[in-house]
């Protein structure tokens, strides 16, 4: 297995992926996060502007698989400052995966694993549109790719969406796969699916939804 680089490792999902990463993994973090504990003490941390294709190309030298777990929400939107890019769907949910994919290709990487979201194909609004655009950029990058589309990600501190699962339980009686796409996914299950798809080309070229992610995680 070649070297894996992960962007978004400091996030809710990323922190559950972290323990499963090998010693030679590269943790790509924006400089303000890379300079803080625990990241500053991890030899695998690479502080890099995740929108700077040139800098990313250097950071990805020798990497086989790029994993993008980055994303933002409206509540986190803010304008650019002297030190940081603006935070919005265009910069984070589209700009970062696009820059990572282009840089990965230039650096000689072979594969890209993108954490996207369920229901974005036809969903209205800026968030699904951003995820569609990110997926398109990754698919057209020339790299092998896998797109993961979980529904709500739940776990410690994020249990509320689980309440919706009661609606999918009856659906599951006659359409198990469909219900598994809709229902929430535990963050540990998702983290295992991220690690497995990052470590093997078995699912390359596929868009994986809840039923697949549960099966892959085992
Ligand atoms: N939450 C859900 O229920 C859900 C459902 C389906 C899909 N998704 C998607 O799954 C992905 C991961 O979700 P999550 O809840 O694990 O994410 P999260 O906890 O919000 O973490 C977001 C990650 O993105 C990084 N990031 C955000 N803005 C950045 C910027 N401007 N520059 C560099 N890095 C930046 C953060 O790094 P810093 O630590 O530096 O901020 C962090 O590592 C996202 O793409 C999300 O859209 C989420």
Tags for this entry?
17% strand, binds NADP nicotinamide-adenine-dinucleotide phosphate, two-stranded parallel ribbon, Rossmann fold, 9 helices, 218 residues
Describe it:
The protein contains nine helices and nine strands. It has a seven-stranded parallel β-sheet with strand order 3-2-1-4-5-6-9, with helices on both faces. The protein has one domain (3-157, 186-217): NAD(P)-binding Rossmann-like Domain (Rossmann fold). β5 (111-115), α5 and β6 (144-149) form a beta-alpha-beta unit. The protein has 218 residues and is α/β, with parallel strands linked by helices. The model has no long low-confidence stretch (mean pLDDT 96). It has helices spanning 14-17, 31-34, 53-59, 89-107, 126-139, 165-174, 176-182, 187-199, 210-217, and strands spanning 3-7, 26-29, 45-47, 63-68, 111-115, 144-149, 153-154, 185-186, 206-209. The structure holds NADP nicotinamide-adenine-dinucleotide phosphate (NAP).
What layout of secondary structure does this protein have?
Elements: E1 3-7, H1 14-17, E2 26-29, H2 31-34, E3 45-47, H3 53-59, E4 63-68, H4 89-107, E5 111-115, H5 126-139, E6 144-149, E7 153-154, H6 165-174, H7 176-182, E8 185-186, H8 187-199, E9 206-209, H9 210-217
Parallel strand pairs: 1-2, 1-4, 2-3, 4-5, 5-6, 6-9, 7-8
Helix pairs in contact: 3-4, 4-5, 6-7, 7-9, 8-9
This protein binds NADP nicotinamide-adenine-dinucleotide phosphate (NAP).
NADP nicotinamide-adenine-dinucleotide phosphate (NAP) binds next to loops.
């Amino acid at each position: 297995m070649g070297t894996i680089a992960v962007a978004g490792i400091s996030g809710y999902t990323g922190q559950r992926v972290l323990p499963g990463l090998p010693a030679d993994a590269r943790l790509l973090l924006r400089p303000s996060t890379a300079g803080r504990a625990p990241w500053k003490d991890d030899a695998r941390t690479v502080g890099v502007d995740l929108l700077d294709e040139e800098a990313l190309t250097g950071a990805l030298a020798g990497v086989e698989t790029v994993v993008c777990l980055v994303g933002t929400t409206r509540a986190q939107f803010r304008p650019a400052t002297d030190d940081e890019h603006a935070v919005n769907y265009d910069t984070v949910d589209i700009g970062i995966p696009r820059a990572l994919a282009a840089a990965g290709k230039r650096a000689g990487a072979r594969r890209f694993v993108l954490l996207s979201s369920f229901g974005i194909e036809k969903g209205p609004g800026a968030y699904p549109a951003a995820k569609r655009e990110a997926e398109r950029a990754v698919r057209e990058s020339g790299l092998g790719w896998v797109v993961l589309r979980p529904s709500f990600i739940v776990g410690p501190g994020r249990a509320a969406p689980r309440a919706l699962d009661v609606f999918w339980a009856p659906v599951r009686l006659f359409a198990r796969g469909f219900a598994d796409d809709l229902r929430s996914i535990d963050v540990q299950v998702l983290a295992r699916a991220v690690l497995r798809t990052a470590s093997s080309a078995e699912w390359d070229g596929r868009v994986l939804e809840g039923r697949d992610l549960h099966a892959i995680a085992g």
